[in-house]
Fold:
Amino acid sequence: MAEHYENADGFWMKSVTEYYRRILPDKSRLVFEIDGFEDKNKVDHLSDRELKKLKNDLEDLGCIGIDVNNYSKPNYSTLRFRRIGMGMWLYRLYNQPLTSQQRDSINAAPCLIVYNDSTVFEFWGGVFGAQIFVGKDEFLKSRKK
Structure:
């Protein structure tokens, strides 16, 4: 995920999510995945042209989906990176830099890894899977060197 984030340019990822946050009305949510999950998409607030742009933006970023929640999670947006089986890897892109206390709290969760001051890697294990980011300890150790 780290390599993809760097290659896709994290700044561009944040710019894309911020664009969709700005065009959505307050108290609204955009949930969209490119392949296979069309029935779960919530795109009421996008025109056909904006929806086509969204698909192109996600393809350019090498991501499969987006979740922008202007209602209950206004401090970050999520780009869905990959699905394997029931598991999914995501990028949480925060609007403001995380405080030291926030970073420590986030890193304490077994399914989250703070990557930088405003980006967190997340793993969802699915309905039956453990909510553990496999390789988290090794990744964190490698970053301390």
Notes: The CA atoms of residues 26 and 70 lie 6 Å apart. The longest strand covers residues 76-84. The first helix runs from residue 2 to 8. The two ends are 19 Å apart (CA to CA).
